[in-house]
Q: What sequence folds into this?
């Protein structure tokens, strides 16, 4: 962790006082002005302020803080956000130094924080297979002219399929970053792509035309199928948009999220079943066994594929107040991302309330709330082995977590994150969003 940021924080507190402990917006602006390149350090200081850790330390300003109270604040950061002990300790120490707080006791440098059980069945995690502490961008894919909200790897890991608001779908060679093929056919934005499990086909979804879903043959890209919405009045087509697509694990069904969720037979393109009440669907996903389909909208709805029965309806908490200029308002709460854990035990959601929530699939019980993002969370992806979870959103930050909720590291993306996709071997993470280019992050050396 960079000590320059700690020195800057001390100078800012000296100038502006303890107001910075509670005024997160002002704190963030000042830190970005004076040390904006150190985003990781800024992030952990902001999280400590948001969770009122800084405010708690400020109670001892100019005095002494008992070691037990210090440990309690470090543990709070660890327990409530999954932040690594090293970063939690640094954040509390930085605030203590800035506020002139002396910590009593000699054990501050080696605090004992309770460790959560490892995600792989209780066995110690193989450190040789852990992600790098500092993932790096190894490839930038340039060719689209507008935002890229849709990305998928092919099953062999050699190709990435991208969909963009420029109305085009592109196929990219992962190794070289070169565009192999550009596919046209969508009248308006392409907002969703899905690759069949056997890698022989891909589906793309967009807006403003009768054929909202198109199916292409891979790898040559020939159009083989158009899936229509014949019941949609032509006068309303411009407002209809397929926001999400997902193939069932066996490839026999395709889920499309638009106004409600539709299940299609992939062989015929015929509509099999429709779920929901016509609200906009932001994301869809099949459970690993293919028996359930989840749709993220105002709430998360989990449906049984076989008979169309609703299994769970889950909502996020009330949205936090948002301040724009001198106005404060409460935005509508939405669930914007969903992913099933590969073992089928959990379903995870991200929302515009800035949180990620992990739910037990069997009974819908909330297991973890992950709080690290400072804006809406629009992208989730589990690593193929299920040990790691990547989250991204409008704050331009990608967070990597262990499956048990422990925060590992953050990656600062050039633009807001709309989509995340792991490579089949789990070594790479593709991230796309508000920028016309997208990035490939290396997670393992």
A:
């Amino acid at each position: 962790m960079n000590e320059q940021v700690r020195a800057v924080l001390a100078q800012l507190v000296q100038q502006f006082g303890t107001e910075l402990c509670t005024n997160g917006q002002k704190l963030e602006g000042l830190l970005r002005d004076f040390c904006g390149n150190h985003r990781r350090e800024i992030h952990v200081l902001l999280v400590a302020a948001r969770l009122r850790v800084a405010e708690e330390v400020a109670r001892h300003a100019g005095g002494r803080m008992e070691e037990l109270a210090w440990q309690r604040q470090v543990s709070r950061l660890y327990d409530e956000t999954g932040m690594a002990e090293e970063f939690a300790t640094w954040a509390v120490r930085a605030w203590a130094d800035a506020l002139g707080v002396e910590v009593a006791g000699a054990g501050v440098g080696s605090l004992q924080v309770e460790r959560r059980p490892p995600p792989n069945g209780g066995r110690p995690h193989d450190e040789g297979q852990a992600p790098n502490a500092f993932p790096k961008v190894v490839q930038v894919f340039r060719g689209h002219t507008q935002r890229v909200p849709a990305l998928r790897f092919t099953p062999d890991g050699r190709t990435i399929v991208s969909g963009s608001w420029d109305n085009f779908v592109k196929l990219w060679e992962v190794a070289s970053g070169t565009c192999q093929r550009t596919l046209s056919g969508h009248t308006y934005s392409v907002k969703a792509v899905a690759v069949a499990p056997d890698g022989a086909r891909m589906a793309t979804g967009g807006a403003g035309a009768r054929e909202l879903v198109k199916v292409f043959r891979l790898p040559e890209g020939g159009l083989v199928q158009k899936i229509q919405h014949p019941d949609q009045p032509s006068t309303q087509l411009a407002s209809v948009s397929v926001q999400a697509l997902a193939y069932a694990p066996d490839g026999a069904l395709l889920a499309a999220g638009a106004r409600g969720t539709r299940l299609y037979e992939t062989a015929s393109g015929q509509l099999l079943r429709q779920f929901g009440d016509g609200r906009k669907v932001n994301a869809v996903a099949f459970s690993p066994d293919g028996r359930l389909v989840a749709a993220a909208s105002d709430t998360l709805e989990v449906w049984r594929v076989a008979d169309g029965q609703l299994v769970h309806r889950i909502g996020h908490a009330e949205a936090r107040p948002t301040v724009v200029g001198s106005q404060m308002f409460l935005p509508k709460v939405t669930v914007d991302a969903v992913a099933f854990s590969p073992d089928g035990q959990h379903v995870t959601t991200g929302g515009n309330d800035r949180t990620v929530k992990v739910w037990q699939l069997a009974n819908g019980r909330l297991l973890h709330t992950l709080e690290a993002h400072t804006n809406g969370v629009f992208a989730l992806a589990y690593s193929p082995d299920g040990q790691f979870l990547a989250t991204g959103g409008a704050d331009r930050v990608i967070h990597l977590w262990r499956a048990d909720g422990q925060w590992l590291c953050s990656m600062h993306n050039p633009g807001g994150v709309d989509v995340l996709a792991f490579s089949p071997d789990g070594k790479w993470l593709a991230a796309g969003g508000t920028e016309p280019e997208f990035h490939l992050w290396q997670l393992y050396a």
In short: The chain has two domains: 3-107, 127-442.
